[in-house]
Amino acid sequence: MTLPVVIVDDELAGRRTLREMCAREADLEVIGEYGDPAEALQAIRARPPQILFLDVQMEPLTGLDIARSLEPAHLPAIVFVTAYDDYALQAFEVCAVDYLLKPFDQERFQRTLERIRSRHAPALADRHAVLERLLAQLDRGERPAQERPRLLAEFDGHLHVLDAERIEMVEADRNYVRIRVGRDTYHARSTLAQAEQALRHQRMLKVSRSCLVNVEHVREVSRTPRGDYILVLRGGATVTSSEGHRGRVRDYFAALRLGVP
Description:
Blueprint: E1 3-8, H1 12-23, E2 28-34, H2 37-46, E3 51-55, H3 63-68, E4 77-82, H4 88-93, E5 96-101, H5 106-118, H6 124-139, E6 150-155, E7 158-163, E8 169-173, E9 176-181, E10 184-188, H7 192-198, E11 204-208, E12 211-214, E13 218-223, E14 229-233, E15 238-240, H8 246-254
């Protein structure tokens, strides 16, 4: 039996990833793919799918807005797709089956499908029971199983999945950020604030208005005559702190010193 699928994501790359993963599954049929959330909501109401992949961060309607606007009697198996795991609780509040943390791979996608297939066409009461168990899990401080945090970025015309812990530095570049991993530099359409949020579980130090450094990759520290700090990273890149962030950098490295400075 074929399961109708609708994909809603305002980024083309996100829709393409889900479409390609769905195409590998014999029992999935993508009946709709939308970048406009308002258009998507109208289409879902007209022809409800059995599985709905919803990006969380969209405008003017978010994925959560769309989910809350659907008729409970025709609620599909909802899977939220997000770059931020903070949305997990809100996702469960609208009876989501699961949520995928971007970027995800085929193995993680398969685990989501296993959950959906194991409770194919469940009653609404059953979904609320699942919801209660998930909320209880969160109340105990347990996080849903996720692979180590990763980010999607572009290099040499191709998208690459990066382990967050390998990222050495992030620099703002207009509407993009440059992500340094070893000797390679990747690009992603993001603000520095969004990158900082995505990497909040890493030990990131803001050394200027436009630069974040993963202190786990700092191998050498020196100072300029005016007192700014020069950090040499594991991959060979160097970055200098700005005057406005000098105190923060000084305090961090002062705490690492042995003996009396």
